[in-house]
Structures are given as C-alpha cells and as structure tokens.
Amino acid sequence: MPILVRCWIIVLAAMLVTACGGADQESVPAAVPLLTLGHVGHDHQIALGVAALEPEKMRQQCGIHLQELKPREVYRMMEGERPIAELHVKKVGGGSKMPEAMSRGELDVGLGGIAAILFFIDKGTDMKLLCPLNVDGDMLLVQPEFPAATWEEFVAAAKVSPKPLRIGYKEPVAVAKLIFERACAAEGLRCVAAGQGKAGEVELVNLQGEANVVPSLASGAVEGAVVNEPGGSIAVYKKAARIVCQLSELPPEGMWKSHPCCGICATGTAIANHRAVLQRLVKLIRAATEVINADKERAAELAHQWTKQPLEVERSSVPNIVYTVDAGDAYRLGMERWFEMMRERDTFQGVLKELSNADAFARVHDLSFLRSVE
Amino acid sequence: MDTGRHPAATLLRRVGLGAIPFVLLLAVWHLASRSAGTLLPAIGEVGEVLAHPFREPPNLDSLPLATSALVSLLRVAFGFGAALVTAVPLGILVGCRHTARELFLPIVEMSRSISPVAWMPLTIILLGFSSLGSVLYGTRAWEYGLLDQVQLAIVAVIWWASFFPVFLNTMHGVAGVRRLFIEVALANGARRAALLRHVIVPAALPAIMVGIRLGVGRALMVIVAAEFFPGTRAGLGYFITTSHQVAQYEYALASVVVIGLVGLVVNLGLYAVESRVSHWQAKER
User: How far is CA A269 from the centre of its chain?
Assistant: First the structure.
C-alpha cells in the first residue's frame, strides 16, 4: 500500500508541476470589473471572435477593443488606453447550456440562441436580451441523391413518396424544426412523429443533437434534416448532404424572413452593476458586426480562426447568416412570432405565459444599451 | 504452458499472437474507410493527428492532443485519488465492523448501479464551473496553467465511477482475511492498530489492488462522457465529443487510440504493483 500511495503522490505532484504553468501574465488593476461571458462557440457569435481577433480595427471603428490576456479565454476590454473590464470567455455549448449557466449565476453575459433565453426568462431567470446578434441561417438538407433541388420539388417529392420521408432535427425546440413544421402545414404536407408516418407524409426524427446530423444523413437513417449553420455547411463539406433551401424562404411567404436566432443577454445583476461596461460591450459587438458585413470573405477567415471549423465550411456558412444587432420592426415581428409559437406549444409556463406580445417583448429586452450606441 | 521453449521464441510468439487482432483491426478499418466514403477517416488521417500531439488542432476548437491527455490524466488522478482516500478507509471499516456494514451496505448497493453520467446535471448545478484552479486561485485561475481545466464537477463524476469498485473490493478483502491470521496476531499481543497495519491490510491488499485496477478502468471509461462539460476546452473526452459535433472524426479516433494506450500503460503499471504487493499470495498457494 505505501508503495502505491507514494507512486500516486509522485505522479500527482509531477502533473501538478506541469499543470501549474506559472503566473507570468500581467495582472489587471483590482478595480477593473470582471465579467464572465458565455458563448456557444459556433459562427453565429463570431462578432465576439472578430472583436477578439481584430483589436486594431475595433479600436479604429468604435474606440473599444479587446486586449488578449489568454487566447480565446481571457481579454481585457479597453476604451482607448484605459482598461474598463476583464472578460472571462467560456465556451459553454449550445441549447440551454448558456442560459442555464446564467440562471446559476456563473455567467454575467451570454451569447446564444434566443429561444432558449426566452425559455429561461419564462422560468424566472433574471436576465434580459440586450440586442440580437444574427437572424436566419437555418436550412433544409437532403441526401445528395435525393430528387429535389428546391422547396417546391421537395414538397412534390414528399407527397408522392411511397414511404414517409424521414427528416431529422437536432432538438425538439430547435427553431429550424418549428419553421419546417409550419411550412409543411402551409403546403398541406403532414408531419408526424418518427415511426407513425404513411406514404406522402413526413416523419420528424429527433437526432438527439447536432453531432448526429452528418452520420444520420450519411448512413441513410434520415433522408433529410433541418439544421442551422454551420451544421448545414459541415454536412455539405462532408458530402453527406445538399442544401435545398434556406428556411427563411419557406411559406407562409415572408413569415420567416429575418427570424431572430441568437442574441446577447445579461443578468439583472450585471445590468444593475455594470451598465457602463455592458454599453461598451454592445458598442463593440455592433462594430464587429459592421466589420463582418463589410467583408464576408474576411469574416469567414476570422470565423475559421475563432471556431476552428475548416475554412471551406465557414466560407459557405457565413454568407448564409444575417449578422445584425438591429432590433427594429422586423426583429420585433420575429420575436412576436416566437412568443406565439412558444405559447401554442405550452413552452411558456411562467412569467411570459399570460403576457401580451408587446408586454413580453418589453419584459425580455433591455434595449437601452443598444439605443445609447446607435 | 510454454515451459521448455526458448525465452526468445516464447516472447516472439506472444508478440506475434498479440499483434494479430491489431493487424486485423487495421485491415478492417482501412477497407471500411475506403468503402464508406469520406466519413470514416483513413488510418493516415488519424496517424497525422497522432503525429502532432503538441500542435493545436487546425480544425478543432481544443488545446493540443498532448495537453488534452494531460488534462484528462489530471482529472482522473484527482477523481480517482479522491475515490482511493475515501473508499479504502471506508471499505476497511465496513469490512471489519458488522454494524458499519449494516449501516452502509443498503445505500452502497442502491447507489453503485447508478451510472456516473446520471450525476452530471446535478454536479453541474452543485459545483458549476468551479475548478481546482478557481478553488486555489479564485478569478486568477486562468493564470495557473491547466488547473482551471480540472473542473470539480468532472472530478466528482470520476470519483463516483471509481469509488464503488475500490470500496467493495476493499470491504470483501478485509472481511475475507483468514481468522487464523488474526488469532495468531492477537495471541502474540498485537493491538488494534498493529493488527490493522500488519495483518488485515496486507492480507486484503490483493483484493484492494483488484478494486484499484477496476476503479482506474472505470475512471478512464467515464472520462469521455464526463468531459462533455460546459466551459471545458481540453480533455480526451472533450476531443471526442467536440470532433463529433463538427464531424472531424479523425480527432475522435486519435483520442480513442490515446485513451486505449493510456489504459494499457496504467494497467501494466498496476499489474506490476499488484504482483509486487501480492507476491505472498502466490507463495501461499
């Protein structure tokens, strides 16, 4: 036994020595506030990546930039030469992980999917959306040999199919699935749960996560899938699928154009205690969004550096996403559509359940930061 | 069985036989990667990842493979270490004392069938993003190398996975110590501490070692699921789950190979320790 304990202690000590890389980085003044910021880690939130990778451009564009202390993890937010905050960036993954971490008080700011944010606000998490990050970017994929190149052809093929078409989705509350179901209904195409379909119908298959989209398409487990970028571009890059259409183009006509996808939210505590920092963060993200839209090729390169997806994937994905912090009429309409759909599905059981669209919009947003930088 | 053969011939035979499954596996893999199109990576692609363990993967948001392996080993070391220091004393206590056995066995029997992964959501709720680094250095944890990657939630899940094999084997080992050994020691005036130190623990050591080997094996198995944890940027399990998400399967397979090699080395090491501490058992037989 003593030999084993000694061995373990030696191994552990050696690992600790290796792991403790030493505190040679420069420390910030104690007075600078520290904010923890969570993000999903894909290209919907590359405004953050652009801000981190292009500090000089950001400084020129808006006077604020991020000084790197530890790549992809720790940044000092600077206004000119003055440090105004330290940002600890955490990649927390998609779905409900980001708002869940905010509800636990582990994140002050989050960049992620709006549907999940609404769900947690409804459950009582004290947070507000500060501005959108992007709209659209969802698509319908089919296997490469599937006989449809447009939505109309897809509907026609589905209606005459001798067996139900199996279309996968990544999770039950995925925006892409909600849009696809509505669009099918508008075309008179019936969507049913997996295993319950007949000829001429669509079976919706829960793929239990984005990671299973490509293998499911490649193996023929599903004939198609509705996904958001960069999932669509990854499937095409892997030659497992073809893009049929963007979901924003689906019927009812115009209904899905500019549908909100991701946004920035902050906890009530952060809003109360760090208004100045949040205002500058929104300003920085807004400037980064302008940089993305000014040169999408360069934005794809930066997205490749930030997300580490192959450059070909980002070159295909970034142009399919509309990057915007504009919370104008189109965004408001899109949000009201989400409120209605989430109410219809009984997703809201808390504070948003009984509110009108206008009241719910006011309840989930604090657009004062955005207005102050516009 | 091999008595009478030249040692070199025996070694050659063992190596040759042991290599056959690997060769077959590589052949099947090679054929499958050719026929399955682009999805299953070729052996060369995985070899390319393995050949550059210190390079940050160009198409994967992760720290280098070698760093990931080190982070996983740190997590296993702390999780398994915690299991060792809790399970062995508790196992000795329960093995020695009937009352302790009656007290602990029902909850142990109920708990040990619960998958460690089932605790992930709860450990995240209870421990959040806190890490060894944040416990030691607070918000400056990021300045201290990899310690902020040793998240307590992951350590807790590994602890759960490793605890039961160590505990149960210790308990059975202690309970199964021959009455004769104890009586001889007592007849020679041994006190309780000496009895424990010089008779019970050494006699139970072979069983404890079996528990340790099983515990380490379970810790390595659970690491893949446990490292699918928000806020993580390294680890062999993180490597696998992240590469699945972005369909870069060569990284997943490279990580699988490393986990297998780590398991092999750890097991060989533990066998060596086991044969050393259990040598008396063979003599007794």
Answer: 23
Domain B42-284: homologous superfamily in CATH: MetI-like (1.10.3720.10)
SS3 call for A346: coil
Q: Is the pLDDT of residue A30 over 90?
A: no
Q: What is the ipTM of this complex?
A: 0.78
Contact A239 B38 (CB under 8 A): yes
A82 touches B at CB < 8 Å: no
- pLDDT per position as a tens digit, B196-227: 888 999 999 999 999 999 999 999 999 988 89
For chain A, what are the domain ranges?
34-136+259-373, 138-249
Which of A41, A88, A211 lies at the smallest CB-CB distance from B244? Answer: A211
Beta bridge partner(s), residue A292: none
pLDDT computed for residue A5 by the predictor: 53
Nearest to A244 by CA among A157, A172, A135: A157
d(CA A154, CA A168): 15
Interface of A with B in 262-291 (CB under 8 A): none
A27 touches chain B (CB under 8 A): yes
Under a CB-based contact definition with an 8 Å cutoff, are residues B87 and B170 in contact?
A: yes
Q: What is the mean pLDDT of chain B?
A: 89
Contact B171, B95 (CB under 8 A): yes
Q: Using an 8 Å CB-CB cutoff, list chain A residues near B145.
A: 18-22
Which of B64, B69, B27, B38 has its CA nearest to residue B256?
Answer: B69
- What is the DSSP-derived secondary structure letter of residue A163? S
Q: Report H helices in B36-115.
A: 43-51, 65-96, 98-111
Q: What backbone torsions phi and psi does residue A84 show, to the nearest 5 degrees?
A: -115, -15
Q: Would the CB atoms of A309 and B241 count as touching at under 8 Å? A: no
Domain A34-136+259-373 adopts which CATH fold? D-Maltodextrin-Binding Protein; domain 2 (3.40.190)
